[in-house]
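HUMAN: Would you supply a protein with fold tokens?

ASSISTANT:
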Amino acid sequence: MKHILAALLVTATALPLAAQDEPAPTPGMMQQVMLSEELIALGLARNDPILMLAAMRIRSSLDDDTIAMTTAFTDKEALLDAARAAAAGQDDLLGLIEDAATEKGRTFCYPSWGRTICY
């Protein structure tokens, strides 16, 4: 947990130095990232594919263009491999994991009065 918080602090302090055209993650986005990391850690510790699946679903609601995951956060492919291994022999659960693997961000953006609004 300390490593994750340290990574967040480094990321937060580096945000002002980032290019101006890159949107900064909102506090809500960062809460989603942190919650997903906590679920991943707990899922790995308990070898629980449902916790890992919940983390994947939360992570999939973040658009890769809006928030770039750093190397301090769990890699999606590593998470998928761990979830598949934990769900071995449970076909229904493996199907849900595959659905989550292909799910894209749910952010919807549209132009409005000269700017883009996303929700």
Remarks:
- Residues 27-46 form the longest helix (20 residues).
- The helical segments are 2-14, 27-46, 49-60, 76-86, 91-102.
- Residues 2-16+25-118 form one domain.
- The CA atoms of residues 77 and 111 lie 33 Å apart.
